[in-house]
Design brief:
heterodimer; A: about 300 residues; mainly alpha; MetI-like fold; 2 domains; 14 helices; B: about 425 residues; alpha/beta; D-Maltodextrin-Binding Protein, domain 2; five-stranded mixed β-sheet
Amino acid sequence: MRTKAERRTGGDLSEEAYAFLLLSPAGLVVLAVVLVPLAITFVYTLMNMELLSENRGSFVGLANYASVLGSAWFWQSLGRTLYFTLSSLVLETGLGLLVALLLNGSFPGVSALRALIILPWAIPTNVSAALWKWIYHPEFGALNALLQWMGIIKECRSWLGDPSVAMNMLVLADVWKMTPLAAIFFLAALQFINKALYEAARIDGAGPFRRFWYVTMPHLVPTLLVVVVMRSMEKFKAFDIFYVMTRGGPANGTMVLTYEAYLRGFTNLDYSAAATIAYLIAFIVLALTFSYLRLLRQEDIND
Amino acid sequence: MERRTLAILALVALVLFSASALMAADKVVINALFMKQAGYSEEDTTAATREFEARNPNIQVELSFVPYEELEQKIITSAASGGYDVVLSDGPFTAKFAKGGIVKTVPDLAAADKADIFPGALDACVYNGKLYGMPWLNDCKYLFYNKAMLEKAGFNAPPKTWDELLKMGKVMKDKGIVQYPIVWSWSQAEALICDYTTIVASFGGAMVDASGKPTLSSAANKKALQFMVDSIKNGITNPKSTEYIEDNVRDAFDAGTAAFVLNWTYNYSAAKDPTGSTVVNDVVIGTIPGSGAVKSATVNGGQPLAITAGSKHPYEAWTYILYLTGKEFQKKYVQNALPIWKSLYDDPDVVKSNPDVVKAAKVQYAYIVNRPKVPYYSAFSSMLQVKIQEALLGKKSVDQALKEAQAEAEALAAKK
């Protein structure tokens, strides 16, 4: 006897086959634009795909990985990528938490503020990067104007012209843009905490800091992990902010792995090096994800 | 939704799709890629293209304009499929594009035409004796100076050598006329190598020798880089130069915060435009200083139009290129850029339209030099940008930076 569902589909196909049929166009698209390029890129990492090379197309095994991992520039760029990831992550989660605690209160205008805080996050990264490039402009920039007006500096100075300063300036621009995301996540988590817990803690004589540490924090840990996982992965892969603001300069001070891959692939025509760097980035992000996931699972068990 | 309805929709879509493909078939559509900044403007290129279509009713040209920084990537990614047929290339790309099979060779030109094109412009399209495009944009760097500042400091002629420039800058600085007399495009970008090419040549050297071997640790290279480093140290060069490209240099000059700049031709029309410039009456276009026996030097900024390797309509693409590079177009739009044709420089209309620039060009063109014409140029350039910046920012000594640059350049040259 036919089930109702089967009758509704009308044909001789089983429900599974019909579902598969309907999903197949989407599956084909994923195959064509994700899986196939991914596989081809991997093959490229095992070949000499340097367009200018005389041995183009030859199979080289793991030589690309060996040459990339054996070079000084890779480790320098990896170091800068980690610096960018870690420093902006710490600042973002810290600031995000503070903003969330503030916005969790009830005072006039709090809902307007909650809406307003989203704004930087809503701006596309290349737009906000262009915006910050102007803010940092060494002659006409708003940052110079502000600091001069406050009397902190006497004359306009360069913000993106020195390697170490430039990287910190990019971190600042990224923190400005992405703190709202962390804040919104934390705010959502804070709203779910049962108010009765605070009252109980207060009756037990816990001060504001103890209440935060023993009541609020445990509830925020899962969200904190989500924010850290998501943001560190995205930061590790960040490209647009570097492309728009510094293009890896000055003196390679902001040369991160993604930009390194771009430069080697699209400027130097060395597709094998670019593909290898891309795969190494993917491996690192994957490793990060697995370790975070393990952490998350442990958290679940502890709960 | 019923499956029958879905099937009907799919069929309708298929019919519409093939119909639109059929309708387009009687016209050859070619895609062309240009850049947004400097040279011929977007409006003028579009207007000229419409005119071309009117004269060649069987060809339709779709235009795209992107920033210079995106040109190379767009050309490379579309080369295999012929996504763009005609592309605006750049002199330093030619060797790499030719060897990497990115662009097609084009028919050789008639001897008379060849003789009438500036050698620097034509050179930018040639690799191993073959022509890989047609010169279109003709440009080089000039010295622009602020006449009022020079006069205030008691000078009535521009500097002829770098030493003179430094001395004049010192006087202007000491008199408080300008804080930093010269500003450059020395950010980690191709712009830095354009300036470096110029300075090295003006000290009588080159980055590679005639056979293409790197010579970055030569005396002239050391003198050039030392000059750059010293000029920052003694405050003649604006230290912000290390984060500037050409547009920032133009802005600084137009804002009246620099007495001297090196820049492309477009710096002149920008400085003469009262809507964005405070130096309309003070800007003068002149010749880049030299040193010792070298009178002057400038870098070739000529950009060719080329045909991608995957283009399915090379004949139509070449017809279009010949139109844009022809004397008629180059004369009509001379306000944007100077022609590639020598004979046009004596044309009274051309001279009248831009007398100062034509006069300066006639002198400066004699000292034009190319960036190294080696297939590994891009890797060479990005490596050298970092080394030069390390010296400019005081992270490495001039000798150390150039020694490392030479070693890396030799490794690039040896790579098979």
